[in-house]
Every structure is written in structure tokens, then in C-alpha cells.
């Protein structure tokens, strides 16, 4: 199922005769009575919800440009002038630049690792028969429905004993491990849909299994990799629970953690405008990327639930 | 394709499986074992204590509160979220005015705009959303109360997160706010794949839109709704409620334990109070609740699969 047909909700290609009303467009609508009230109601509700979604975001953007005094005295007024100093203060003094860098490092490393390792495991599980195949598959997939917090208590000590606590590479390894269940689940289904004839031809021509995988199958699986990549990117970029438990060093904080910490410490310092600038700073790149890659993002995030 | 097959399989599976076993499977097994010990997490020494932690848990009032709240999260948040999402998705895709010469059913004008906007919260981190709403709920300077003052409701100034009777609902509302859009888009995709002739048949039989929704759309969409419910419930029991309750409420989990949830209680017991073994016991209870929830939803929702 495609989720991207944003503007054409009703597929008319089924060949079914579409009932046409005789009068050409422009005439007074015959069935006005039935629709008018419901139509107004549904439009009203849709507009209201759009409003409720956008208002808090706009409010945050607006607040990030105000000084501290007017944030408290008049939360809904427009800023008297654009206080860009909030933004620069957040970027430098409140360490937002460090948080961005840490997040980019962790997500960059774990996204590549998740896709490489996830597609390797998924390919083997989808394409090869061997004893234990089903067991390993369900071992991976089962991880999707287990409460992660249960594992986090011992995991903290596992990671600590390996000397990986509060390190970027330790966090990367943990992110990869917890992203594998969905990635393997999704990509296994995807590799099953690819035709096997191409891989067989490559194999007959003397390519090894791993060469077949990297040069033939992986390029063919690109759409699936993009979908699951977007899904993992957003999940890992927005991750809060794993770093809260496993990454307690103030210098290594990722964006979400840093902002929460900032909210706590700004409570003492009273620099609310700086905090709002930080919040908006963290929100905007993701929102902008979403608006640009809207179709791909929606397809990536909903793909799993539709399989 | 037999040549070197097993060497290849082992080579490809070893690293992902090893990583997964070490960081996911092994800690799960360990935590069930730890729940039968008196391990503090601080010292490496501990001994077996049998079911002591479990009997202690059954006497723990805060545990029962957190259980109650978690169950409420798993049932109510998906119910409201999916209900709203179904309504919006139906309006967007089927609720439009019948236009002359157009298809027999159509979405409202601007349907793609709504889908883009509704999806906004889904791409933001739940932690950022929680922070934002923590400020919006602020009784003195927050956006909500000042909006109420602005429209003349000076007497209606709730304490929101500060009120033990309101705080839990405030937190749940944030979760609903942040996830409705995802399901609107998901259900829209499902509705788009329902053949138009089914709607036509219903309309020819004189069905109005409410009947059409309950007799055509919902039954054909049931599988998606059901898996959405399980997905949402697991999130509401786990990571999402950890973030919203942990970030938004005082304590966190307050005021007066009125918002505490199991996943937060596990975290606090393990990493704040140094009672790792007891924390894993609550974690095991959370596992049981999660699996029971999934089983119940799958069972209650079982219907004849409709092919179309």
C-alpha cells in the first residue's frame, strides 16, 4: 500500500463505473441538504485540529524571539523586537552546538550500522533455509513488543562493565541493537519480495554470496532501505529513554537530554528565552526536512504498520 | 547455491545477532533472574531471596498506583487517539461534498494540506513535545491559561500539572496530541485502497455517511486499526509515557504520585533509589502487562478477515 498519494484519496482505476450525476458542473447541487451540515461540521473539526497542532509550535517560535520579561507578562503577544541574542546564547552558552554535534555523531554512526547489519541479517533470514532460521527471526521480531525499560536496568551494568558507559561508540552500539528488531522485520519482508532470478544469475556467473549481496541485492533493495532508514533516523534522532539511562556524562549529552537538562537548569537561572530558542532550534531542522521530504517520510514511518 | 552457504550465513548473522544477543536478549534474561535477588545495583554482591521482591511489590501502594495509571494509558490513550484519527481520516478521504461530475465520494478540500500539518508532531521528539507543553500548562505564564484569560475566562485558571486530579489527563492529552496525525495518515492510506464501488453500492442503497463509516470503512480497515491499537498501547506503556511523565510532572510522577507510571517507577527504583532488583521485579510486571494487553486486543479484535 502506498501512503504517498496525498491528493488523490480515491483510486478510480478499479475500472468500476463511476456514477456520474447528469448535470454538468456549475448547476445547483442536488444533494445539498445531506451534505451541508455534516460538511460544515467536518470542516470545522479539521480546521480546529490543524489549529491545535500548529498553535503550540508557532507559540514556541514566537516565544524564542522574546525577552524573559514579556514571556511571563504576556505569553501571547508578539515580540517587541526579534531577540536573536536568545538564539546565539542558546547555541554557545547553553551548549546547543555540542548537543547537535553529539546527536549527529551518534545518529550518523548508528544509522549506518543499523542499515548494514540489519540488511545483512534480513537477507540471510529471507533468502536462506537453515535450521534455526525461524527461531532467529522471531527472536529479532519479538524485541519489538518487549518493554525496553526492563532490559535497561541490567544493560546499564553490562555497558558499564565493558567500559562503554558514557561513550559515543557505546551509545551507537546500543542504538543499533535496539533498532534491529524493526529493521530486520521490515527488510526481511522486503527481501522476500525481490525476484530471486537475478541473484541466481549472478551466482551462476561466479559471484560469491557476499558479492551477490553487496552488488546485486543491496542496490535492488534501495527503496526498502530508504524507508527503514528514515524510520530509524527519526527514531534515533528523537531517542530519549536510552541516552537518559546510558549516557549520564554532561559533555556527551544528546539533543533531547540536553534540552531537558537545560529546562531544569534554566529554572534556576531564569533564562527561559534561551531555552525556547534551544527548543525551536531542535525542532526546525526536523520539521524542515519533513516538509521537503514529506512523501518519503510518511512512507517510511507508516510502511511498517501497513505490512 | 550450496557452495559456501553455511559459512556465508554464519558470517552475515554473527555480528548483528551477537550485538542483539548481548545488548537486548541477555539483559532481558538477566533482569528476570535479578528479580529473585536482593541486588542493589551499587555493589556486586547479592543473594537469592526467592519471591520476596514480588510479595513486597504486591504491598507497595505506589506500585499499584503506577499499574493503574499504566493500564489507563494503554487503554484510554489509544482509544481516544484512534477514535479521533478515524474521524479525521474519514472526513479527509470520504467526507467531502459531492461535487458535480466528480467521483461519487471524495475528500474534503485541502485534504493533502491537513495530512501534512497533522503529521508535524510525529517527526518531533516526544521529549521536545513534552517540554513545550510543560510550559504551555504553566498556571501563571503558560500559553493555555493566558489564552483563557484572553477570552475572558479569568475565573477558569486550573493548575493543570499541579492539580493531582488533572495532571494525569494533561499528560495523556499530550500523547494524544502527538500521535493522532500519524494514525490519520495511516488510516488515510488504508481508506484510499478501499475500492470506490463499495462506497457506491452503499450510497445507492441509501446509506448516509455515518452508516457508510460503520458498515463499510471501519470493517474493511479493522486490521490496521487493531495493529495500530497494539502499537500505540505498547508505546503508551513504555518509552512515550516515560518521556512525558518524566519530563512534564513534578517529582517526576507527582503531584502526590498522581501521574506515576510503571516504566518511570522502574527507572526511579533502579537509578535513583539503588534498588535494582526490585526495579527489575516491577519491570517483569510491566512485561506481563504489556503481553497481556497485546493478547487481549488481538483476541477481542479478532474478526473474520474481509477480502476486497
TrEMBL record, chain A:
Locations listed in the record: Cell membrane
InterPro entries: MetI-like, MetI-like_sf
Region of interest: Disordered: 1-30
Residue ranges annotated for the ABC transmembrane type-1 domain, each copy included: 100-293
Keywords: Cell membrane, Membrane, Transmembrane, Transmembrane helix, Transport
Protein name: Carbohydrate ABC transporter permease
Recorded topology in the membrane: Multi-pass membrane protein
Membrane spanning stretches: 40-62, 99-125, 137-159, 171-191, 212-234, 272-293
Gene Ontology process terms (BP): transmembrane transport
Keyword set includes Transmembrane: yes
SUPFAM superfamilies per UniProt: MetI-like
Cellular component annotations (GO), alphabetically ordered: plasma membrane
Keyword Protease: no
Gene3D superfamilies hit by this protein: MetI-like (1.10.3720.10)
The family this protein is said to belong to: Belongs to the binding-protein-dependent transport system permease family.
Automatic annotation (TrEMBL), chain B:
Coiled coil: none
Location in the cell: Cell membrane
Biological-process GO terms, alphabetical: transmembrane transport
Membrane topology, from the record: Multi-pass membrane protein
TM ranges: 7-29, 71-95, 116-137, 166-187, 229-248, 276-298
Major place of residence: membrane
Record domain ABC transmembrane type-1: where: 67-297
Alphabetized UniProt keyword annotations: Cell membrane, Membrane, Transmembrane, Transmembrane helix, Transport
GO terms for cellular component: plasma membrane
Any Pfam family: BPD_transp_1
Family that this chain belongs to: Belongs to the binding-protein-dependent transport system permease family.
Protein name: Sugar ABC transporter permease
Lineage: Bacteria, Bacillati, Actinomycetota, Actinomycetes, Kitasatosporales
Amino acid at each position: 500500500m502506498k501512503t504517498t498519494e496525498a491528493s488523490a484519496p480515491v483510486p478510480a482505476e478499479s475500472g468500476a463505473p463511476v456514477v456520474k450525476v447528469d448535470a454538468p458542473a456549475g448547476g445547483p447541487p442536488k444533494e445539498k441538504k445531506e451534505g451541508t451540515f455534516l460538511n460544515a461540521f467536518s470542516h470545522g473539526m479539521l480546521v480546529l485540529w490543524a489549529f491545535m497542532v500548529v498553535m503550540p509550535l508557532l507559540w514556541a517560535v514566537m516565544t524564542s524571539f522574546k525577552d524573559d520579561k514579556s514571556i511571563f507578562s504576556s505569553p501571547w503577544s508578539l515580540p517587541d523586537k526579534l531577540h536573536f541574542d536568545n538564539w546565539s546564547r542558546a547555541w554557545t552558552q547553553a551548549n546547543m552546538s555540542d548537543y547537535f554535534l553529539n546527536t549527529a555523531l551518534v545518529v550518523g554512526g548508528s544509522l549506518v550500522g543499523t542499515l548494514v547489519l540489519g540488511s545483512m541479517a534480513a537477507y540471510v533470514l529471507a533468502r536462506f533455509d537453515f535450521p534455526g532460521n525461524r527461531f532467529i527471526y522471531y527472536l529479532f521480531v519479538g524485541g519489538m513488543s518487549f518493554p525496553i525499560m526492563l532490559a535497561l536496568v541490567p544493560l546499564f551494568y553490562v555497558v558499564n562493565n565493558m567500559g562503554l558507559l558514557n561513550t559515543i561508540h557505546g551509545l551507537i552500539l546500543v542504538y543499533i541493537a535496539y533498532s534491529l528488531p524493526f529493521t530486520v522485520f521490515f527488510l526481511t519482508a522486503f527481501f522476500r519480495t525481490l525476484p530471486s532470478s537475478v541473484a541466481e544469475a549472478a551466482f551462476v556467473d561466479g559471484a560469491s554470496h557476499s558479492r551477490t549481496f553487496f552488488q546485486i541485492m543491496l542496490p535492488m533493495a534501495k527503496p526498502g532501505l530508504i524507508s527503514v532508514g528514515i524510520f530509524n533516523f527519526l527514531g534515533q534522532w528523537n531517542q530519549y529513554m536510552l541516552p537518559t539511562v546510558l549516557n549520564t556524562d554532561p559533555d556527551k549529552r544528546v539533543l533531547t537530554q540536553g534540552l531537558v537538562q537545560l529546562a531544569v537548569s534554566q529554572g534556576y537561572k531564569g533564562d527561559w528565552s534561551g531555552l525556547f530558542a534551544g527548543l525551536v532550534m531542535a525542532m526546525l531542522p526536523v520539521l524542515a526536512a519533513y516538509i521537503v521530504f514529506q512523501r518519503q517520510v510518511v512512507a517510511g514511518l507508516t510502511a511498517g504498520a501497513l505490512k | 547455491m550450496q557452495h559456501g552457504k553455511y559459512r556465508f550465513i554464519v558470517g552475515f548473522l554473527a555480528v548483528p545477532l551477537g550485538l542483539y544477543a548481548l545488548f537486548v536478549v541477555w539483559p532481558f534474561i538477566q533482569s528476570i533472574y535479578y528479580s529473585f535477588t536482593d541486588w542493589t545495583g551499587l555493589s556486586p554482591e547479592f543473594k537469592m531471596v526467592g519471591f520476596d521482591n514480588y510479595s513486597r511489590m504486591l504491598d507497595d501502594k505506589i506500585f499499584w498506583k503506577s499499574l493503574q495509571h499504566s493500564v489507563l494509558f494503554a487503554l484510554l490513550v489509544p482509544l481516544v487517539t484512534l477514535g479521533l484519527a478515524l474521524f479525521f481520516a474519514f472526513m479527509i478521504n470520504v467526507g467531502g461534498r459531492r461535487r458535480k461530475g466528480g467521483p461519487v465520494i471524495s475528500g474534503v478540500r485541502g485534504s493533502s494540506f491537513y495530512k501534512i500539518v497533522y503529521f508535524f508532531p510525529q517527526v518531533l521528539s516526544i521529549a521536545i513535545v513534552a517540554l513545550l507543553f510543560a510550559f504551555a500548562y504553566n498556571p501563571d505564564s503558560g500559553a493555555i491559561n493566558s489564552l483563557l484569560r484572553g477570552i475572558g475566562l479569568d475565573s477558569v485558571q486550573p493548575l493543570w500539572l499541579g492539580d493531582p486530579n488533572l495532571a494525569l489527563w494533561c499528560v495523556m492529552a499530550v500523547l494524544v496530541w502527538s500521535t493522532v496525525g500519524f494514525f490519520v495518515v495511516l488510516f488515510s492510506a488504508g481508506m484510499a485502497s478501499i475500492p470506490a464501488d463499495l462506497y457506491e453500492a452503499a450510497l445507492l442503497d441509501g446509506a448516509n455517511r455515518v452508516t457508510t463509516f460503520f458498515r463499510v470503512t471501519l470493517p474493511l480497515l479493522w486490521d490496521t486499526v487493531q495493529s495500530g491499537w497494539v502499537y500505540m498501547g505498547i508505546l503508551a506503556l513504555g518509552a512515550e509515557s516515560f518521556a512525558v511523565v518524566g519530563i512534564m510532572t513534578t517529582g517526576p510522577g507527582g503531584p502526590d504520585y498522581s501521574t506515576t507510571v510503571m516504566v518511570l517507577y522502574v527507572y526511579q527504583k533502579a537509578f535513583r533509589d539503588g534498588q535494582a532488583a526490585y526495579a527489575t521485579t516491577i519491570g517483569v510486571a510491566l512485561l506481563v502487562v504489556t503481553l497481556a494487553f497485546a493478547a487481549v486486543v488481538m483476541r477481542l479484535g479478532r474478526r473474520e478477515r474481509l477480502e476486497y
